[in-house]
Amino acid sequence: METFRERRRSALYLSRTACLHFAVLVRTTAHGTNAVVHVYGKVSLVDEAELKQIVLDTTTKFESTMPRPWTVPFSEKEIFSMLKAIVGFKIDITRTEAKFKLGQNRSAEDQEKMLRNLQAAADDESRALARFIQAQRQTK
Q1: 12 and 35 belong to one structural domain
Q2: DSSP 8-state class, residue 5
Q3: Range of 33's domain?
Q4: Smallest Cα–Cα separation from 35: which of 43, 25, 45?
Q5: What is the pLDDT of residue 62?
Q6: Are residues 34 and 71 in the same domain?
Q7: Euclidean distance between CA atoms 105 and 118, whole angstroms
Q8: The predicted structure's pLDDT at residue 8
Q9: Which pLDDT belongs to residue 15?
Q10: pLDDT digits (tens, 9 = 90+) for 37-64
Q11: What secondary structure does DSSP assign to 41-85, as a single string?
């Protein structure tokens, strides 16, 4: 079964107004749920040192939960050579838009079954999605 994290997709493009549009689509097909978030704002590129830190921090964050976390085994020269293939950027966010499809179009029975399955899942992402769905229900 695919986890919540494995189904993330993102798209990035620059508009004619030089604003960055960044959309993240999260989909869990096994449960028929998805979320789309669009972030708008002014983009700025980061320098090599900041990009290196972003890559190292991201690697540490996502590898730290693995049974045998991978660490960066490369020399400084090798790291900076690889960083040339990455464009690092920051977004000064001015607006966000989000839309969630969390099984609202399904029967109450199907919604409860989906929620139980997410709550019982082995991965943290599915359980986090279950908590999010419950919180959304409470705000209505």
Answers
A1: yes
A2: G
A3: 1-46+88-140
A4: 25
A5: 81
A6: no
A7: 18
A8: 42
A9: 41
A10: 888 888 888 899 999 998 888 888 888 8
A11: EEEEEPPHHHHHHHHHHHHHHHHTTSSS-------HHHHHHHHTT
